[in-house]
Amino acid sequence: MKIEDNSALNQLILLYVFDEMDVPLTQNTVTVMCTSLNTWLAYMDCIVTIEALKQSGFIIESANTKDAYYSITADGRTCLNNFYTRIPATLRNEISEYIRENRMSYRRKQEYHHTYKKNSDGTYTVTLTINDPVQTTLEIKLTVSSRTVAKQIHNNWEKKAAQIYMTLHDELTD
Length: 174
Fold this sequence. Notes:
Blueprint: H1 7-21, E1 25-26, H2 27-36, H3 43-56, E2 59-63, E3 68-72, H4 74-83, H5 89-111, E4 112-118, E5 124-131, E6 136-144, H6 147-173
Antiparallel strand pairs: 1-3, 2-3, 4-5, 5-6
């Protein structure tokens, strides 16, 4: 009995995901999206496929201080354009729809980070950052009086980070 090798299809699926997302993605984001939340790939297949795409030059890794981000290359786009019809149309539609509905959520999770810690004087320091794949774009540290306020700021950051950044930028460049 012949065991079918789906590695080419797996590579096309991941290239399609990278192309549809159109932003650099961490390995964690790709694996969660493609294996845990959807069943487009098995976990180990996803890990192996990312490495194969990297070695073939179809995706490129850019290292950040904490995470490695992956982006589709021109060669990856060419490959996908030539062979995307090998991905079943129903799967392409499912991936496209899922990404259209969840793109911003994934970007926020990757780019907007927030932590808080208790200080020795009983106050809390809340650290809020916006990171892109190359550098930290914004870092704000706030000292607040209570854990309740720290948690409130912590919980609101992902929803309001872009608006806060834009306001700060506009106010400081006027």
